[in-house]
From TrEMBL:
This is SEC22 homolog A, vesicle trafficking protein. Pfam families: Longin, SEC22a_C. GO terms for biological process: endoplasmic reticulum to Golgi vesicle-mediated transport; protein transport. The keyword Transmembrane helix applies. It comes from Pelodiscus sinensis. May be involved in vesicle transport between the ER and the Golgi complex.
Length: 318
């Protein structure tokens, strides 16, 4: 029998559960699949705004959509129609956005602080309606959702992306059938948030530091050719050009439109390279120059870290 087993509302930033339906299904498969919930919730910020995860050995699947920093998740049987699943999630999203101020969801501290949305109110009633589609009082536009799913299919999350959740063994991707290509890398084509004013400042300062390093590097080469000195002077040239490359790479990391794998790690390593270059050049720079270059590098790394993948804005077909 195809049916929705449970639904919940989760904050994308940290996986904090905001609301959930009352679950009456207590089968072993459902209980085991719920153990993936926490792991999946913690990874929402790294995933596209519409995804599916199939736990093949239990014939159960997760579906969810994310918007404006909130994710709407559901657990259903594997044969439940995807079109109905995403219509259900879209209905939850519209109702939650119109009912609650997004500022409250961003500042919530306690789990399930909007529990009334799920247990006795909207989620529970809507779940009952969608578990008996013939009783739907309002006609849902399946044709539009079918078209949207064909044009922009849900991202199929592989079990390898979640790893082992709460001691559950890894399920091979070969168990998933009919789900299309399953990617094991980072979520594809996920746009980053818009550039902020502090980000523009860090971009300009990084370019300035890169230009200063480049100019000092050419001056060092000119001095090297004139004096015909060997060894230590040439190492200064290398340090200046490495500093230039590191500053320009930070600029590129921040301006890149899409989220890439290991972005934050690369940014941290680049900042470490800037620190090492300036430590080596301490004889050629005064204390304020060293402080300026290291501070700009740290500020740029922070801006790269703060620029997160963006959620999809809701489309109400207005």
């Amino acid at each position: 029998m195809s049916m929705i087993l449970s639904a919940s509302v989760v904050r994308v930033r940290d996986g904090l559960p905001l609301s959930a339906s009352t679950d009456y299904e207590q089968s072993m498969g459902v209980q085991q699949c719920r153990k993936y919930f926490k792991t999946l919730s913690k990874k929402l910020a790294q995933l596209p705004d519409r995804c599916m995860l199939k736990a093949g050995q239990y014939n159960i699947k997760y579906s969810f959509i994310s918007s404006l920093g909130v994710s709407y998740m559901m657990l259903c049987t594997e044969n439940y129609p995807s079109v109905l699943a995403f219509c259900f999630l879209d209905e939850l999203q519209k109702e939650f956005i119109t009912t609650y101020n997004m500022m409250k969801t961003n500042t919530a501290i306690r789990p399930y602080c909007f529990i009334e949305f799920g247990t006795d109110n909207f989620i529970q009633r809507t779940k009952q309606r969608y578990n008996n589609p013939r009783s739907l009082s309002t006609k849902i536009n399946l044709a539009d959702m079918q078209t949207e799913i064909k044009l922009r299919p849900p991202y199929q999350i592989s079990m390898s992306e979640l790893g082992s959740a709460n001691g559950l063994a890894y399920i091979s991707a070969s168990e998933f059938k009919g789900t299309g290509k399953i990617s094991t890398g980072a979520a594809p084509h996920q746009r980053l948030e818009a550039i902020t004013m502090p980000g523009i400042v860090s971009f300009i300062l990084s370019l300035l530091c890169g230009a200063l390093n480049l100019i000092r590097g050419f001056h060092a080469i000119e001095s090297l050719l004139q004096v015909q000195n060997e060894g230590e002077d040439f190492s200064y040239v290398i340090a200046f050009f490495l500093g230039t490359a590191a500053c320009l790479y930070q600029v590129q990391c921040y301006l890149f439109l899409y989220c890439t794998g290991w972005r934050n790690v690369k940014s941290f390593l680049t900042f470490s390279l800037i620190c090492l270059c300036n430590m080596y050049l301490y004889e050629l720079r005064n204390l304020w120059q060293l402080f300026f270059h290291v501070t700009v590098g740290a500020f740029s790394a922070l801006q790269i870290r703060l620029r997160q993948p963006q959620g999809k804005s809701p489309d109400y077909n207005v």
